[in-house]
């Protein structure tokens, strides 16, 4: 029922949308009943085909491709004797489009599964495929449209363009232009203003009191089955619609929708040509475990549940095992950070390319062991290492030479088990049952660093085919974190197909040594990739975007995306010592969780140790979780984690507990890390510090007020 305060127009709109939904639900239950009755009976399909044929004779030009596609679908189902998949009655569509044209007005509902009952005036079309979806994403209500569908030009007016949310079969929101109508739990409808309209866009109001955590975002839970699909802007939709064979590079500031575009593009590529791009031959690779989990969650509702999502490390291990036909590869338990940096640096790629003739060698097959020893020759060659450091132009410190030498010596030592071959196996085990070399430098003997795997595959490919299974399409998210060797391996897996999507933002690279987009594209063999630069920062409200740019300093790109909306000011809280800061934050979190039980909160510390230590303050609370290995549950509550875990993720509220001079000094890497942490918040950000504030925030307006 509608409330008294609503205008007659709003009441009419609600009545119209509710009637439409009920028509769709009736048509669906009728279709379901028929499907149950006939099982393999083909009559229903025949009838549907007949209706579609009729419709085709009177159809609007814009409608024809869609009608033909549906006819083809029904025909092929008739051939396969399958039942037609029906939209989920709980959330059958996410938008309503009414187009007028020479043959009158016609309603289209955008969803994920096509369904038509033309007698009832119901047309649910698939956003990934239906040509009419182009009108939805490219025009506003009231616009005249002109689009060519196949070889026919269609024009008319967008009479209505409404976003709707249907939760458990009940219409709960209608958003059109500046208006948002919302149904409360008691079934009363309310009108809200333009600001509130952004709630549908994952936004919120701005009514935050200073010193108060929470803007009301997490008071209620919205079950929006379609999420951001309904909200793609014209530019994003154009990128999503890039032809499947064309390599695509999606750039944009934090939260501008790069992941969103990359995954929606994958959905469209797979849907448009499932034969060439079957899900089983597509892959998404991301740097961190947390983002891999989130990606799986985002793929599921896009109908991409069978796409494999891997972290860089697990992908390169499984690819190396298949390339070298090995059941397992003994990885080093830990690689010093500096050695990792060396092995991922573009200067090493250039230097090894110069040594390729050595690796080409003579006839012996390029097994992992042989290549590992040849690579170790390079790592043990001081002049070679020094040349790499010189070429890195200050991005690798000179101390890296000694570290790589030492680490390689330990790895190339003969493992104790082999040295003592023939000894009683029990004598090689300590009293606590562990191998005698565990936790000693000997534990490294005979191991390979995870970062060596793509290098070894690069070396193998110099001698012929890599020998791993080919991919039809690959998505690389946070692509600025991929080393050139990894990109090389990807290019081998793609082979002649260059169908891939890279999403990235150079200012979010976590370590120094990004080769640049030109070099990345070159390595992938896709210099002609289409590039799109997303312009709007959807995740973060304006105050957060401003702080993020301030933190980056001169690294901030001139063409950074603009904030999509206003929002609560950033809260700065400074304390003489850490214990006070953490008690204060602990109380604020307790209070927030009570008020907003559905909110997601990220407490992002600068390091693993700091996260563990802060977690102790709230660990008794059932809603507090310590997440150090990317194992986010994405449930409401508080995740206490560190910067290395959060790339690509987002939380309603973010609290940074230790923005101190020690944790974030004035250097480029600290700037990028703090920038990643700051840009995780979609509604409000709190920055806390104790002792000495980080120089990266000190001069930001409002940052100097003590709590
Ligand atoms: N057109 C849009 N309208 C509203 N919200 C959007 C739109 N596009 C993306 N979003 C939302 O903005 C947030 C950020 O999107 P996404 O994670 O794709 O950005 P990103 O550029 O990959 O971020 P990061 O740089 O952190 O990896 C998500 O919540 C997403 O649903």
Automatic annotation (TrEMBL):
It comes from the Bacteria. The keyword Cell inner membrane does not apply. Residues 231-541 form the UvrD-like helicase ATP-binding domain. Keywords: ATP-binding, Helicase, Hydrolase, Nucleotide-binding. ATP binds at residues 252-259. The keyword Cytoplasm does not apply. This is DNA 3'-5' helicase II. It comes from Corallococcus caeni.
